[in-house]
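FAQ: What does a multi-protein file look like?

Like this. Sequence, then tokens, then the next protein.
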Amino acid sequence: MSNQINAFIFDLDGVITDTAEYHFNAWSELAKDIGIEIDEEFNEQLKGVSRIESLQRILKHGGKENEFTEQEIIELADKKNDHYKTLIAKVTPNDILPGIVDLLEDIKASGIQIALGSASKNAPFILEQLQLNRYFDYIVDAGKVKQGKPHPETFLTAADHFDVPYETCVGVEDAEAGVTAIKDASMFAVGVGSEPILHKANIIFPETKNLSLEKIKSAFNAES
């Protein structure tokens, strides 16, 4: 591993801002419409995965995985997304998680490129709402990849855009699927959240407010 970091690739939900509550509200309402109950514990399984994959997990959870055609599944996913978009229209810079702006400033000051790697097609809109566009050199959303997390394609696509070796990239994630994707991309994984869930990460911070470029660089160099 090189001792120089060439790029940071950030997840959006749960790292830059917390839209998990909006996702949960939109999914639970849709689930209720088709006779399935989901709770917040089940919702953990939906973090970091694509919209269609999330819906398929909900249908399986409710024992209804064979009751809908492919077209109906797409329509249901679109219905969820329409509801979600009305909720995220209320997002403002006040919804940026603690410590994130300082970290982005430090990375920019170091001359390191920054990408967003999100499972959400709404990622560009949310970044705009948060007024964070200026920090990001590239956005990889669900529309740019064929395979969502835990497949590494999201992270590989960002690195390929920057034309940098994968092992010189740092991924920042709060979901197990995301950390798996980073590691499978041969990148350095920064986890934000619970150690038991994110144990595959190279370094784990309990909350975004604890994130530190110096600590990340130090841990990265220690593994170089």
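And here is the next protein:
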Amino acid sequence: MLKPFVNLADVAFTDIEENGYYTSRRAQFSAGIGARKLGYNLTELPPGKAQCPFHAHRAEEEMFLILEGEGELRYGADRYRIRKHDVIACPTGGHATAHQIINTGSTTMRYLALSNVSDIEVCEYPDSDKIGVHADEPSAPGLHEMFRSEATVEYYDRESNVPPGSDA
């Protein structure tokens, strides 16, 4: 039986991102303590880095609790100074709720992230005009695709106006 808690000093960092500006370590421990509808992770963000690009979710609402360090929250068109013990709400939506945490301090920032878990998610990336589509199915490969916003097409693009199997 799973123990329904973990001490943050004991979590394992299994998601390591080293991609220039986007450099971080995340310990994803939700399943390990029995969570089913919420996702939890502990993120460590080095000075001058961001964990991910500026983005907005359509299905998953996020909350962040800054445990150590200081930085900047990009939120919609605004920027806010953030520091230890700040609690940040990032509700679902479009460009107005897009968000990004940046470590502008001189020490590693640590924060706890919490979100609901959705089987289907659409993320928008305003800085790069991309859209991410994610759909997971139990025991099957999911759909994880990124698209450029300018590559949109009309609803009937590449659709035939002739019924299947007709000679018309």
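Q: Is there any per-entry metadata?
A: Some entries carry free-text notes. For the entry above: The two ends are 63 Å apart (CA to CA).
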